[in-house]
Amino acid sequence: MIFLKTDEEIELMRISNDIVAHALAEVGKNVKPGITTLQLDKIAETFIRDNGANPSFLGYEGYTNSICTSVNDQVVHAIPSKYVLKEGDIISVDCGAEKSGFHGDSCYTFCVGEVSEEARQLLKTTRESLYEGIKFAVEGKRIGDVGHAIQTYCENRGYSVVHGMNGHGIGRSLHEEPRVPNYGKSGFGTKLKTGMVIAIEPMINLGNENIYFADDGWTAKTSDGKISAHFEHTVAIAKGQADILSSFKYIDEILENNVK
Ligand code: MF3
Ligand code: CO
Prior knowledge:
Blueprint: H1 7-29, H2 37-50, E1 54-55, E2 67-71, E3 74-76, E4 90-99, E5 102-111, H3 117-134, H4 143-155, E6 160-161, E7 167-169, E8 176-180, E9 197-200, E10 203-205, E11 211-213, E12 220-222, E13 228-230, E14 233-236, E15 243-244, H5 249-258
Antiparallel strand pairs: 1-4, 2-4, 3-12, 4-5, 6-10, 7-8, 7-9, 9-14, 10-13, 11-12, 14-15
Bound molecules: 2-amino-4-trifluoromethylsulfanyl-butyric acid and cobalt (II) ion (CO).
């Protein structure tokens, strides 16, 4: 069952997502060689709690932390650890926050210092593909239109779309119906209507699409050991244009100030 949100509920979700957006920027400021992913987790958790919200991921199906920190060939859901970031790594930071009963969910892939041109291009394309998908997150379009847009954008540039891990509806629960795959057929799937809120989250591999799960039961990794990127926004379906509830603008501000 898909839970439609009222305008008031969407405003609450905008607040939760704004906390997530700021938390990701706080983490981004600290993404540098020498910091551990567990230190980044603490920064996010502290920021979320200081803003009167709860980390959505902590305790979710037994998950032990507030963010996922997926480095290089880790696709998604990597658990923060003593791993020390090094120059040239890429790190996907996925973050969720709940306030007033509603969740926000967003992910951004950061560069650690200077990264390869190959990595830079993968990040650029993955981020762009998210916005290609969002173009179809409007009343009257279908879930398949969103996935198709993401898939064609990435595959045309030589990348692979991870299958079996998807975006999702979001609201009072972190994961609600419908499932939002990053691939699909135009004109197929659930019809979108105003009041639906979905998290769109392309996970795109440099090499082939195959993944496996590490022994911790959470971390998804590429089978070929090549890097993977992940960007995510929570968006409310509306007429004509999607209403993007999360934001990368705070991240863009800090990165502009940092990158010379
Ligand atoms: N954005 C991720 C997802 O939707 C967040 C889940 S992490 C978990 O899959 F730890 F909460 F599972
Ligand atoms: Co999500």
